[in-house]
Structures are given as C-alpha cells and as structure tokens.
Write a structure and sequence with these properties.
single chain; mainly alpha; 4 helices
C-alpha cells in the first residue's frame, strides 16, 4: 500500500507548513515579547517617578501598578502631575482597577 506521507509532494507541503508555522510563531513571540517589555518599562518608569514624588511606595501600590494595562499606565503618567498627595495616587488607583 502506498504511504502518501513518503511522497515528495507531501514532504514539500509539510516542510512549507512547518516553515510557515515557525515564522508565524516567531513573529507572534516577538510581538508578545515586545509588548511585555514595553509594559514592564512603563511600570518601572512609573515606579521611579512615584518614588521620587512620594519617597516610598507601599506594597499595595506596587501591586496595583502591576495590574494596570499599558493604557492605564499612560493615564497614570499624565495624572501624576496633578497629584498633590499620596492619597491622590491611592484614589486614582482605586478608581482604575
């Protein structure tokens, strides 16, 4: 009985599919890695700015920063300039969870 998996056409299609899958997976992995790195960079910058402004950050604030989306981090970065107290930061975080 003929095994189609051994045919040259099957092998070519399989190789093309594997190459395409690897390329798509690599591109997807790179995009996810880039997004994660950008997110972590924003979080780190916000933590530095907030520590500079308020001396120390509580664990609850640090945990809240970790849960923010990148868009929320952008909003917090803008709002930070209007904070006059640590309570302003805590209130902002409570309203954006």
């Amino acid at each position: 009985m003929l095994d189609l998996r051994e045919s040259s056409t099957y092998q070519e299609i399989l190789a093309e599919g594997e190459a395409r899958g690897l390329a798509e997976g690599e591109a997807r992995g790179l995009a996810e890695g880039e997004a994660r790195g950008l997110h972590e960079g924003k979080e780190e910058l916000l933590a530095i700015l907030l520590q500079q402004r308020f001396s120390t950050l509580s664990q609850s604030v640090t945990d809240s920063l970790d849960k923010l989306s990148s868009e929320q981090m952008n909003e917090l970065g803008k709002a930070l300039f209007n904070f006059t107290s640590f309570a302003d930061l805590e209130g902002w975080l409570l309203n954006h969870q």
